[in-house]
Amino acid sequence: MREVQRPSVWGPAAWRVLHAAAEASDAAADGGALVRRAVDAMARELPCVHCRTSLADFWALELGIPSASWAERVYHLHNRVNDKLDAQALLARADAATKARALAAGAARGKRLTFEQVQSRARAERARGRPPVAPWEARVMLDAIGDPDSELAAVVRAVTGLASSASAPPVGRAVTDAAP
Fold first, then answer.
1. Residue 124: which residues within 8 A CB-CB, separation 6 or more?
2. Gap between the Cα atoms of 74 and 122, Å rounded
3. Which of 80, 89, 105, 118 could form a disulfide with 58 if both were Cys (CB 3.0 to 4.6 A apart)?
């Protein structure tokens, strides 16, 4: 039986893929086809049942709120998931009074970048010639998925431009090579 990696291993790469899919949908004016395909595939295939459920539930909320762009919807989706994880972490270690205050106040990670700041950073990365999803991040996702023929693997390849899972370098080597 294949070992399933923890979300802390593949989660950041999954978010990069999802943000890149949203940017691509906005640029192509495809009505959100690629980002919807990515979310649908992740909601079925991520190697964590809790992650799949949260993604699907929170995405349904985002689709009900008018937004300027798909990238902005994914930004808000990412924040909803972070809020949930922050609340869970706080509640796991807090006493009853702290838990009640945190839930009433809405536990969050503190100061976050605004959507405009995130977009500005993405533009700066593109100007430097960096891809939205590095090859090693794509490999992390493909390794976590485990099925090279799955819809999610196809989405990862579409977003990253990889022809196949063999195109990405081994994870360990790429991480050290990717350092600025």
1. none
2. 14
3. 80
